[in-house]
Amino acid sequence: MITVQRLLTAMAECVPLSVKIALLGKRGAPSRFANVIHSILNRTPGERYPVLKCSGALEGYRMKVDWTKHRSFAYGTWEPEVVRVIAENVKPGMVALDIGAHSGFYTLMLSKLVGPGGKVIAFEPLPANFRTLEENMALNGITNVQLQQRAVGEHSGEGDLEVPDPENSLVAGPMIPGDPHGSMKIPMVSLDDFLFGQSPPVDFIKMDVEGAEGDILRGARRILETSHPRMMVELHGMEKQEARHPVANLIAEFGYEIQWLGDMGNTAHTFAEWKAKAAAHGA
Hints:
It is a single chain. The protein is built from twelve helices and 14 strands. By secondary structure, the protein is an alpha/beta fold. A seven-stranded mixed beta sheet has the order 7-6-5-11-12-14-13, with helices on both faces. The protein has a three-stranded mixed beta sheet with strand order 8-10-9. Strand 6, helix 7 and strand 7 form a beta-alpha-beta unit.
């Protein structure tokens, strides 16, 4: 059955990315046209969580998405600058981490980039998200991704997670009876503990963890100082920073150079590369 959602995403495949961005704007700064169209589409009858063909970075893949919040995953317009930089820096055979995997947009992209000779480890603690993440990997027959239903932090053990409201954009899929509400206890691991002795070493880390970036980086000191993985880190709480963000300072203390990819008010994306590699990369 052809639904409005499937028809629109099929049409999106035929439109160049630059045109789509010009029409729709960017995450955090939608165009006036986009606001009108999205308002109409959100009231259009159809599935709340359809499985859609993707275009752009995930051309040839399918995703189950929340139509009211994340249809840009399928349009191919999600975070174009981040997508571009990741595509330029993740190569076949690499080991990549997706920390805060949500429903799997970047997990699928990393899986595609590292290829069958590479490996992706995706961490997502929220039950509703993890179910959708599993489904999106199965939909595409992904075999080079290891899924971890736990959080990453400064120390290993047990931590607390505040479960967002079901309508929050952090929730990727439908919540079901029995899902926790409010605060829940979750297993937590530091990257230094999780990756200790792993071979080959980690090459790339993507991180979107709603303000826990500093804790995760402090728990990855040994990995950062020995393996020097490139990193894409979304920084939160930007509006509270009168000077440079403390997590950006922490990344620099580990010997990394930082490239700012722009901000969306409360958040900003940074690409970080170890200085020696950055110098070689730019040579």
